[in-house]
């Protein structure tokens, strides 16, 4: 693989993503809702014990969980399948680039576009907070933004698995939306059902919950913003008391890195070695 080819493809993909109408809708909606949450919360000096940047970051966590996985999954799910459906993939492969360079270039380009959306949303909110003269919690605010970037990379990798295994964009998007529901809604319900039916203890409940990248992001963000571990619930309190906040945070980061690297490796394996019809 050649880095310059990967970066060139990434640059092209980033420009195309930023011109995608659905991506623009997602980006504008995220930024607008972030500002709306900021102005709604500004009527109170504190929310849940948070002030300034920390208050805004706490308000943004659920918004991030709603938008970022959806953006990453849907955009990632059509990255390869749209090329295959439009019959442009053979044309790309006719150039002196390998499949792995195409895959990584597209992944990097889309990821940069999503990160720019996050930076834009967080940046506008940060500027508004700064004009109000409330500077508490800046480090936590930045950390939540960085964790959001990891959340985006993990769900984008999952989206790429869908994309390399699909031939039609409509099918890819449908699977992506189902996965979004599975991770964000069915995941919580499944954990709750398992905890009740199987009588899971706090330790098993914590690891079952933390295995979900969305939940790992949420718990890590809360740990970053607050020392009140009771917010995490019984499983979170147990984990912090047994392992300590630092180790719990490392475990959660490891989960996000796992969901970034393993699905991307599976995508590369399937696209580069198992799927032959594009050659």
Low-confidence runs of at least 5 consecutive residues? 45-50
Distance between the termini: 18 Å
Give the CA-based shape: globular
What structural category characterises the helix and strand content? mainly alpha
- Please tally the helical runs, counting DSSP H or I stretches of 4 or more residues: 12
In terms of DSSP E residues, the strand content is under 5%
Please state the average pLDDT score. 80
Radius of gyration: 20 Å
Overall domain count: 1
Q: Roughly how much helix do the residues carry, as a percent range?
A: over 70%
Topology pattern, helix = H, strand = E = HHHHHHHHHHHH
Counted beta strands: 0
Largest sheet: none
How would you characterize the overall build of this protein?
- With 279 residues, the protein is mainly α.
- It has one domain (3-274).
- 81% of the residues lie in helices and 0% in strands.
- It contains twelve helices and no strands.
- It has helices at residues 3-19, 21-41, 52-77, 81-85, 89-93, 99-131, 138-165, 169-197, 202-210, 213-225, 233-243, 245-274.
- Helix 3 packs antiparallel against helix 6 (99-131), helix 6 (99-131) runs antiparallel to helix 7 (138-165) and helix 7 runs parallel beside helix 12.
- The longest helix is centred in the middle third of the chain and has 33 residues, at 99-131.
- The radius of gyration is 20 Å and the shape is globular.
- It starts with a helix and ends in a 5-residue tail after the last helix.
């Amino acid at each position: 693989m050649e880095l310059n080819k990967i970066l060139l493809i990434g640059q092209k993909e980033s420009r195309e993503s930023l011109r995608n109408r659905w991506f623009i809708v997602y980006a504008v909606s995220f930024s607008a809702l972030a500002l709306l949450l900021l102005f709604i919360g500004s009527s109170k000096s504190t929310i849940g014990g948070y002030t300034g940047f920390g208050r805004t970051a706490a308000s943004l966590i659920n918004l991030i969980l709603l938008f970022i996985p959806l953006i990453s999954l849907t955009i990632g799910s059509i990255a390869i399948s749209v090329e295959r459906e439009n019959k442009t993939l053979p044309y790309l492969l006719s150039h002196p680039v390998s499949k792995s360079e195409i895959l990584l270039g597209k992944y990097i380009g889309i990821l940069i576009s999503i990160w720019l959306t996050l930076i834009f949303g967080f940046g506008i909110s940060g500027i508004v907070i700064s004009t109000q003269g409330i500077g508490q919690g800046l480090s936590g605010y930045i950390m939540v933004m960085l964790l959001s970037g990891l959340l985006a990379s993990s769900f984008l990798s999952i989206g790429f698995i869908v994309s390399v295994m699909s031939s039609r964009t409509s099918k890819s998007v449908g699977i992506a939306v189902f996965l979004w529901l599975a991770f964000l809604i069915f995941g919580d319900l499944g954990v709750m059902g398992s905890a009740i039916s199987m009588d899971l203890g706090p330790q098993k409940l914590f690891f079952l919950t933390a295995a979900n990248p969305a939940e790992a992001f949420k718990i890590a963000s809360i740990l970053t913003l607050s020392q009140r571990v009771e917010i995490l619930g019984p499983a979170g309190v147990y984990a912090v008391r047994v392992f300590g906040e630092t180790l719990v945070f490392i475990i959660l980061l490891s989960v996000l890195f796992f969901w970034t690297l393993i699905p991307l490796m599976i995508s590369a394996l399937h696209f580069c070695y198992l799927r032959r019809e594009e050659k």
